């Protein structure tokens, strides 16, 4: 690798600052630290106070959030996490997969790169991990929000947190951000691989389900909806599906506003009512299994399907730390590090 040797002995009147290294920081959403109401509450408080996520004026929103939502939702959300918590490592699935993705990428990326991971909400936080990278001498850092489709509510806010940290640095590192990779041929090929492996024999419909957003954000210019539609189209084309067999839908609605439609729930109910017995749901907007894929889809919507006459709803696993996904990310990261490493 082409890098300057970190300064070990600075001239006597200079601060001893390490430099010359390149860092890669994977960033995911965030998740409760422990399976307690208090931990879920503080995670939701931070998440739902982010103005990129809920853009109502704070003076109106904070009383609703603190007075109602944070007194009711944590108990329900904790119960949902309880069904999917990783007992082996005592962490949420999202945390486990993100950590494993970073560990595997560190092993396959060039020696000398500093590869780490952080969460936008909760721990390990973005600022703390960037402090660590700076201490290790990273003066060039690639930020990699782990969302194939760009949204201001996810990618945008992850990058914001890094810029906010950079505003306070005496020696601000050069920062690059990973562009959306919703149409990356490697990503589509990896999704094709999971479809071939996991879609059950005799499946009558496959719903391509993405996390939703308020329609208002889409109208204000967030390209997320278009990125989702493109991922869905490329996957359909690669699999030879039409949009009757493989419709796009949006899940996880929160609050009273109109969100992107159709909802995954409405398509699951309709499939049962039409007399379909076996369907699958794939979630190509989530690279890691989490509460929204394992609990909402794998448990909740599977029950909804049987309540409406269906028999089996297969929730297709996310790419997680599979070799295929690590290879997708390795190539994208090397592309984005062009000129920084040789
Ligand atoms: C309040 C509005 C929300 C918006 C807008 C939103 C966008 C959005 N979220 C993801 C990915 C994830 N969201 C997850 C959990 C989650 N999301 C919301 C709300 C909004 N998300 C809430 C309240 C929660 C918490 C769970 C609950 O209380 O039901 C997760 C899972 C985290 C985990 O630990 O498993 C992910 C991942 C995307 C991609 C997105 C917009 C594009
Ligand atoms: Fe969400
Ligand atoms: Fe669009």
Automatic annotation (TrEMBL):
Task: Name the catalysed reactions.
Answer: heme b + 2 H(+) = protoporphyrin IX + Fe(2+); Fe-coproporphyrin III + 2 H(+) = coproporphyrin III + Fe(2+)
GO molecular function terms attached to this record: ferrochelatase activity; metal ion binding
Please state where this protein is localized.
Answer: Cytoplasm
| Pathway the protein takes part in | Porphyrin-containing compound metabolism; protoheme biosynthesis; protoheme from protoporphyrin-IX: step 1/1
Kindly indicate whether the keyword Iron belongs to this entry.
Answer: yes
The biological process GO terms on file are:
heme biosynthetic process
Q: Name one Pfam family in it.
A: Ferrochelatase
- Binding sites annotated in the UniProt record for Fe(2+): 211, 292
Protein name as catalogued:
Ferrochelatase
Q: Which organism is it from?
A: Parvularcula maris
């Amino acid at each position: 690798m082409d890098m300057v040797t970190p300064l070990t002995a600075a001239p006597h009147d200079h601060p001893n600052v390490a430099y010359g290294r390149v860092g890669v920081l994977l960033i995911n959403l965030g998740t409760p630290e422990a399976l307690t109401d208090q931990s879920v509450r503080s995670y939701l408080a931070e998440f739902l106070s982010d103005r990129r996520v809920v853009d109502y004026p704070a003076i109106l929103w904070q009383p609703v959030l603190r007075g109602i939502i944070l007194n009711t939702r944590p108990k329900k959300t904790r119960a949902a996490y309880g069904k999917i918590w990783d007992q082996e490592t005592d962490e949420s699935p999202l945390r486990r997969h993100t950590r494993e993705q970073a560990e595997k990428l560190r092993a396959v990326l060039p020696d000398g790169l500093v590869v780490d991971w952080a969460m936008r909400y909760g721990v390990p936080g973005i600022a703390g991990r960037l402090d660590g990278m700076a201490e290790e001498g990273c003066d060039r850092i690639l930020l990699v929000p782990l969302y194939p489709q760009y949204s201001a509510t996810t990618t945008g806010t992850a990058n914001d947190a890094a810029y906010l940290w950079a505003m306070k640095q005496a020696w601000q590192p050069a920062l690059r951000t990973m562009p959306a990779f919703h149409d990356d041929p490697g990503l589509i090929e990896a999704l094709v691989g999971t479809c071939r492996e996991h879609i059950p024999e005799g499946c009558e419909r496959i719903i391509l389900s993405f996390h939703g957003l308020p329609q208002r954000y889409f109208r204000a210019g967030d390209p997320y909806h278009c990125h989702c539609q493109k991922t869905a189209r490329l996957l359909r084309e690669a699999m030879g599906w039409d949009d009757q067999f493989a419709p796009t839908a949006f899940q996880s609605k929160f609050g009273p506003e109109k969100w992107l439609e159709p909802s995954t729930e409405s398509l699951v109910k309709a499939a049962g009512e039409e007399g379909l017995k076996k369907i699958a749901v794939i979630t190509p907007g989530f690279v890691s299994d989490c509460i929204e894929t394992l609990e909402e889809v794998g448990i909740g919507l599977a029950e909804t399907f049987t309540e409406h006459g269906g028999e089996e709803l297969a929730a297709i696993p996310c790419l997680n730390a599979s070799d295929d996904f690590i290879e997708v990310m390795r190539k994208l990261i090397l592309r984005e590090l062009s000129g920084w490493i040789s």
